[in-house]
User: Which sequence fits this backbone?
């Protein structure tokens, strides 16, 4: 049996679910048998089980109003991560490996800073990470 932390893309609910194997999970997902225990949405994924990498991005220009919607979304995402993930800063690659190899029982995922090389190395070891632009609190 394998426990996955599932996240609902509609209501952002996070819940634990048990599967016979990772294959079983994929099978159920393919057949749309997975649903959110809160809102019944089928947009359920296990992505949050993987460690996240947050990298600061300077691509978003303060003065560009076209980015306003995107910025709002990213801000939402950022707040969500802050609430549900533990910040490990520069220790991200190290902590990600501990989670991956020791199967450390952690209720929360982690996020932090990592270089592109570190992300590449983690990927080669089978540790999937996500990179998202990180918005500073002081620019609106
Ligand atoms: Zn839901």
Assistant:
């Amino acid at each position: 049996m394998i426990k996955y932390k599932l996240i609902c893309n509609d209501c952002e609910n996070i819940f634990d679910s048990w599967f016979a194997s990772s294959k079983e999970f994929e099978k159920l997902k393919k057949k749309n048998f997975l649903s959110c225990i809160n809102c019944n949405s089928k947009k359920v994924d296990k992505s949050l089980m993987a460690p996240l990498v947050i990298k600061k991005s300077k691509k978003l220009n303060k003065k560009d109003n076209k980015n306003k919607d995107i910025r709002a979304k990213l801000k939402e995402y950022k707040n969500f991560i802050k609430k549900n993930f533990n910040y490990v800063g520069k220790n991200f690659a190290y902590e990600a490996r501990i989670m991956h190899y020791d199967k450390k029982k952690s209720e929360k995922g982690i996020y932090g800073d990592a270089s592109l090389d570190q992300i590449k190395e983690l990927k080669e070891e089978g540790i999937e990470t996500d990179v998202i632009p990180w918005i500073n609190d002081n620019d609106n």
About this structure: Residues 68-84 form the longest helix (17 residues).
